[in-house]
Every structure is written in structure tokens, then in C-alpha cells.
Amino acid sequence: MRSISGQECPEPDGLFPHPTDCHLFIQCSNNNAYVKQCPATTFFNEAIKACDHMTNAPDTCQ
Length: 62
What we know:
Elements: E1 14-17, E2 24-29, E3 32-37, E4 42-45, E5 50-53
Antiparallel strand pairs: 1-2, 2-3, 4-5
Keywords: Chitin-binding, Disulfide bond, Glycoprotein, Repeat, Signal
Pfam family, one: CBM_14
GO cellular component, one term: extracellular region
């Protein structure tokens, strides 16, 4: 695993939830991790692997 952003990739490629902030996600490309931020009023929805409206967010995500 290689880390550029201080985060590690669980798989070589893909989108993954940030471990501490539901408004962030980790984009992995060739085992390089990049932390990305969802637009305002959205959160990273792991089920659809995309930023989603806060109306769909779990209670733990504020």
C-alpha cells in the first residue's frame, strides 16, 4: 500500500469512505491514495460510491 495523503488504499483502485469524515472520500489509483471532498451539502455514500444529498445521510453524518 502506498500513501500520498496519509491515507491507505484498501484496494489498488476505487473510491472508499474516509475513516473520520463523511464529507470526504479516498480515491485510489494504482495504490496511490488521494483525499477528495464532496461538494457542500453532500456526503460520500459508500453504497453508490458517489457524493449524495445530506437528506440520505445516516444520523452519524452531520
